[in-house]
């Protein structure tokens, strides 16, 4: 052992200077002047609101996607000491001194910068030359649209970073597969593939497209492994389980962890939690939790309750009544029962209170001990203020003539007896003897006489006329197959009634019985509800000045004005390098045509290129064309407002295809030395034009220097581009 000490310890390090140089250039291009402009830029007005809510720990729901990307932006604010106090209400608003602009924009900028070396490494792993890999990285470096999108508090650069990281990790894993399966580096890159995929999906659901592409490629590779007779059944099983763990189980667990952290951080009630169920709202600090704390858990005969409709769309509302009656005749000439109106009211109100009454007894108070109401029990619902009974009968509802009118019964001494018995059906029961519980139980009320189900029909978009105070209609739905949420209600506020006297009953306080709802709502229950809201909650998509169609993106017939200086001509636009975009389209077309030509020729047993070159052409181009297709074509099926930045992930894959096609043309179609020299000269001239266009549009990429009106007009290379020219 002492012999080893006689020799010096030598550490040999290999440094790829191409990679180092590209990383440095990427950082400079994305981080230079990052705090400029010190004003809200385009969608920063949108994402900034969520960052402020994270800083204040206030719950929110964003229907655009999962929370991981928002948390990364909030991390930048946290590291910069942001307190969340800024009003994100206007694009162009100057940031106050408490807003750490550089820190908030740092993570997107770093992600955009690291996309440059990632592009280089991806082409190296695809077995292309270092020259081609360097060209791909430089094209990403000089792409104006990617620079613009990565320099602000936006998510696209983070999404593209994780997408490229997932592709690179899988390629490294696949290349190690041939000679070092199950080694430490093999496991590292396989696991990193799953982690990067889950992060991409966690930033935006667009990441799901690349995740599905990699799963498909992994499936094809494993299918080829099955045919390898050198692999035993045990070995194949181990490979399958390893891929299942890394590419399915770990991404799912990580995706759940994003929501766990999100829900842990956002524990305070806010304006967004009103669309959630009562149980979810009660699990948040403040808001409904302050009202429901101390409520009895079990609904009993004599309980005083408010009933909230579970659907909660387009707004939350509670079962409500007031002294006004339905008009004797409606505007269309149909008659009504002229009974007391019952509606669904979107605000908390004293007229939302109802008393659960035992039909066999007259008392409206809770007995001692309380007699709980169970699934299947028959009850009467007495309106707390007017003391009239919830009723329905064979009279057409005012807005839904095929459904029954719901009212509070008034005895007019005519041949219309009261029909006020309702059967309680607990939809989410575990057994047929379940007790009706505050907040937790979702119930239907089935009319005993007619089998109609109490339903809030106003969620179809119609509200009652002026005589109904524009409140939402409540009906008895006769044909009630299934459990549509508009037919389901839950008790939100609850107290045990103690007095038979009406005046005293109106002022009764909550029972002191303690019940902590948050302990009854598990993380999986909260996750399931929040995930469903994200997927189903749809904001009204309105036409935006800078919205565009997917067809406009390929030829870059559109742009987005991100920021305009209030006094000078300085401005920032999302505009791509038009030479790069055109070249990417030509490369995609050339790859498709050449591939079809090769396939037809190979079918005729004519092999124009060596087999290894063909395999490289198929695998490298397939990933790039596949990445472009899965990140672009789905937008033709989406019914949402689209913007040019949605195309950037697809564009990134298309840019990677350019050097693949150029290398293939240089190696296999340029036969003579003269042709190769001419081709190299053309490539250099083409790349010079890419750099020239980058420099030309840099003032509207970085926002400085300020340009004159004439210079701005000169940048309008297409009539469809909206370059802002200030009129003095």
Q: Could you characterize what this model shows?
A:
The structure is a single chain. This protein has 728 residues and is an alpha+beta fold. It folds into two domains: 34-262 and 546-715, no CATH class; 294-517, Trefoil (Acidic Fibroblast Growth Factor, subunit A) (Trefoil), CATH 2.80.10. Helix content is 44%, strand content 11%. It is built from 21 helices and 14 strands. The protein has helices spanning 2-5, 17-31, 44-56, 68-79, 101-125, 130-141, 144-150, 156-177, 184-203, 207-226, 233-265, 278-282, 288-292, 502-506, 523-536, 550-554, 578-603, 611-632, 648-669, 673-702, 709-714; strands at 303-309, 318-325, 340-345, 353-357, 378-383, 390-396, 404-408, 422-426, 443-447, 453-456, 472-477, 489-496, 560-564, 571-574. A six-stranded antiparallel sheet has the order 9-8-5-4-1-12, with no helix packed on it. Strands 2, 3, 6, 7, 10 and 11 form a six-stranded antiparallel sheet that branches. Strand 6 and strand 7 (404-408) form a beta hairpin. The longest helix is centred in the middle third of the chain and has 33 residues, at 233-265. The termini are far apart. The relative contact order is 0.10. Mean pLDDT is 88; it is low at 509-519.
